[in-house]
Amino acid sequence: MRRSAILAVAAIFVLPSSGAIGRTGANCAGTSVSMTPLADLGTKRYHGYTGGLYGNGKNAPSAAYLKTGLAAAKRVHPIDGRVVLLSIGMSNTTQEFSAFKRLADSDARKSPQLTIVDGAQGGQDAETIKDPSARFWSVVDARVGAAGATAAQVQAVWLKEAIARQANRFPADALQLQSDLRRIVGILRSRFPNLQLIYLSSRTYAGYATTALNPEPQAYDSGFAVRWLVNERVKGKLEGPWIAWGPYLWTNGERGRKDGLVWTCADTRPSDGTHPSESGQAKVASLLWKFFSTNTTAKSWFLG
Predict the structure, then answer these.
(1) Would you kindly state where each structural domain of the chain is located, as residue ranges?
(2) From CA 1, how far away is CA 113, in angstroms rounded?
(3) Which of 56, 51, 50 is nearest to 37 (CA)?
(4) Which of 33, 156, 250, 295 is the most exposed, having the fewest neighbouring CB atoms within 10 Å of its CB?
(5) What is the pLDDT along the chain (304 residues), one digit of tens a residue?
């Protein structure tokens, strides 16, 4: 499916309002919450913490850290003719990345040497996959192999995770996820010897959720887990692949954010208001395409 078709699907599913569309399994009245998107928060504070994807109101890495990322990107090169971009995560991750893979694979601008592999799996939250012996990892290996690739060819990863039924409040919820993400990064480092780049995203908006799987404010709080982990790498407390933000996905429901992104009830599945519908998948796929095709650390190996 080409990018235009994906965006057309998104346009069809963006319905004008919430409660009148007969979705009994989603809370379509939950069109916004009190939080401000992390990328829009600036120097204002959330429970004492400033906004910005990289902290202190900043949404971009420092010049010095970006220089390190560009050096890592230069090390990405075809190994036996192939570069692999791999996704790691849970059900939302696989649904969104699968839509992105269809979009990218149908676009002639994608490098012919790039193989996109969806390693994310349903029901596999951060608490599960932080265990290096979890079955999740053998499935990842099988999927890489099924794509005709090897672990040595995996050089970039998109990582998006959450903790299922997280009952802790901020900052405990974000700290627990940060710890899990740190362990997952360690597993990635050990399994993929040529991994150069890890891009992380936090959750999409969960104000329509009707289950305890991953509601607000935990979905919003996951942005701080990602930020804190990235900043560990910035400060040199983590070694290995360069770690940075991928696309920031959270927006305040229908209220949206400064760049215009909104997340309507129709962007979620009617069964739970948590998992993305086709339109939600298309929105995330579009954000991923924009990121990988324009980011200075990604476009050199992502595009042909």
Answers:
(1) 3-12+34-160+167-297
(2) 20
(3) 51
(4) 33
(5) 343 433 333 332 233 333 333 344 899 999 999 999 999 999 999 999 999 999 999 999 999 999 999 999 999 999 999 999 999 999 999 999 999 999 999 999 999 999 999 999 999 999 999 999 999 999 999 999 999 999 999 999 999 999 999 999 999 999 999 999 999 999 999 999 999 999 999 999 999 999 999 999 999 999 999 999 999 999 999 999 999 999 999 999 999 999 999 999 999 999 999 999 999 999 999 999 999 999 999 999 999 8
DSSP character for 204? P
The DSSP call for residue 212 is S
CATH superfamily of 3-12+34-160+167-297: SGNH hydrolase (3.40.50.1110)
Both tokens of 134, joined, read 């979890």
| Exposure letters 281-301 (e unless 16+ CB within 10 A, then b) | bbbbbbbbbebbbebebbeeb
What is the residue whose two structure tokens read 């290996």? 141
Confidence (pTM):
0.92
- The enclosing H or E element of 205 equals none
